[in-house]
Amino acid sequence: MSFDYREAVDLKSLTRFSVAELRDHLRHALAGGWRVLAFFGIPDEDAKEAVPGQPVPVSLCCVLAHDGTRRLMARRTPPVTAFVSMTPDLPQLHYFEREIYEQWGVEPVGHPWLKSVRRAPDTFEAQTRNAAAASGVNVSGTNISGVNISGANVSGADVSGAESAVPHEAAPAAAPTDTAVPPSPAQPYPFYRVEGVDVHEVAVGPVHAGIIEPGHFRFQCYGENVLHLEIALGYQHRGLESMLVHGPAARRLPLLECAAGDSTVAHATAYCVVVERMKGQQPDERAQLVRRIGLELERLANHTGDLGAIAGDTGFLPTASWNGRIRGDFLNMTASLCGNRFGRGLLRPGGVAHDLSPQECADLLGRVRAAWQDARGSVDVMLDAVTVRNRLAETGSVEPSVARELGLVGVAARACGLDVDARFHMPLSDLSCENCAPRLEITGDVMARTCVRSRELDDSLRLLELDLTRLAALPGHPGQPCQPSQPSQKSETSAAWPASEGPTPPTHTTPLQAALATAGHESHGPATDFAALPPHTLAVAQVEGWRGEVCHVALTDSQGRILVYKVIDPSFHNWTGLAVALRGNQISDFPLCNKSFNLSYCGHDL
């Protein structure tokens, strides 16, 4: 069924289709302009207390979006233990199917690249063998830790001149048993390998030279040219989704603020929107303005930092040094808004936890304009340099057709000409977006990704000017909390705390303390309790973070408890795009291509 993107859906109203019917639905939908937001497993609620060691029956659920009509669509299957992979026909599902296999042991039979997404190969192998053994699925002859891709042309990889392609020491699968199979000694990850004269392999990471997160990159090179890049992640896996399902409601917002630290406001907004849609609530205009101010400050800070990093990797040091300072200015503005440079503690379901007076709005607007002016001048100096333009052009290109097939989002998608921007296609409010639009390029290279960021700096300034001017003119002040219902008197100790609910906060609280103390009391007035959600409900939130579309999908069980909570960071879609962008480039282009995508390790690993 299709529904308005702002609506929640009764899970019982979803017709269950067979996997074959689901495949046909998805094939027609994607051909008609829909795109995949999420594809995941739903455990059978009645079987949650199954015998230990046996798999919980899992049905497949796919959520799609049509940006032109602002509609969503959800499709669900009956419980399955295996299904024929849809990846060969629908590449957008390739990573989702691997995740389903990793999380539930439900095998997408015939998947061309069935490897772990976040777990170590030995853990992945034991988990999937356990699931197969418990369900009676014969896995003999199957390479569980990585399908045999001998001779396969993976996503169009050009291996001209190579003699053969084999995985590294792929471990043979064991026969199913009646007991849980303990993890075997650590197995080498089954990296794709190209064999041939003058072909060599380069390994980078997971420990890197800079102070960055861990990830492993394995290059197959013919001379200096990259034939194939394989990216192995999961070193930052924390079990976030499991904690959201099994943990108390008080922990959800603080946890999601840490899903990806540089996208704190985006993930916090997505969580708040999901629970608000489940409850049928809409924050008032003042709260919506504060939320968008937080999102655009986050965008300005990170785009400025990325443009400086791109300058640094081209050897253009003036912009690299200037932008580091300017990024800090934007982060400090977020700190003046909520007390935290990354925006933690700014939001809560039903509204926001901080507000601005008219004078504070005017002061912040002046600071934004000054910092934007500095950033604009710094970036223009870089883009005016012929040496920089020559270095960025035709480096790390992704074809629009490939970007569409892979389901890229955000800056990476818009650089390929894909009109994908949730701010305009799935807006969170009716706030004005005057003189702003999705900023598209067509070449799909580093230059295009740089230009998209540069143009979005201007849009963020326009939106902040609109929002801060409007916020200053609205009735209300920091003494009146921003909530969906009528404001009531509040404690003098904090603008975010209603006097009628919850404990009186201390004068000084950290964002984490504030979030924990107010959980369950996020709305203003006794009528709405955001810790109690309606049963059998599905809700979706799409928030355009600075990196791309952040999507959260939440489902509740018969008691209104969270049954499934899916977090899809834009990096989940885009890491494959980075691997494709390196093909045919020199290995020395990798740092520049990597910076132009600037994907999140922890946002992917969760």
Give a structural overview.
This protein folds into two domains: 1-138, Beta Polymerase, domain 2 (2-Layer Sandwich); 240-499 and 509-605, Cytochrome-c3 Hydrogenase, chain B (Orthogonal Bundle). The protein contains 18 helices and 17 strands. α7 (285-313) runs antiparallel to α17. By secondary structure, it is α+β, with helices and mostly antiparallel strands.
Give the helix proportion (percent range): 25-40%
Radius of gyration: 24 Å
Q: What count of structural domains?
A: 2
**CATH fold-level assignment of the largest domain:** Cytochrome-c3 Hydrogenase, chain B
Figure out the total of helices.
Answer: 18
CATH class of the largest domain: Mainly Alpha
Q: What is the architecture of the largest domain at the second tier of CATH?
A: Orthogonal Bundle
The chain-level structural class is: alpha+beta
> How much is the average pLDDT?
83
In this structure, how is the largest beta sheet organized? 4 strands, antiparallel
**How far apart are the first and last residues' alpha carbons, in Å?**
29 Å
Sheet-strand content, in percent, reads 15-25%
Assembly state here?
A: single chain
How are the strands of the largest sheet arranged? 1-5-4-3
Q: What name goes with the CATH superfamily of the largest domain? A: Cytochrome-c3 Hydrogenase, chain B
Low-confidence stretches: 129-184, 478-527
Shape: globular
Keywords: Oxidoreductase
Pfam family, one: Complex1_49kDa
GO molecular function, one term: quinone binding
Protein name: NAD-dependent dehydrogenase subunit
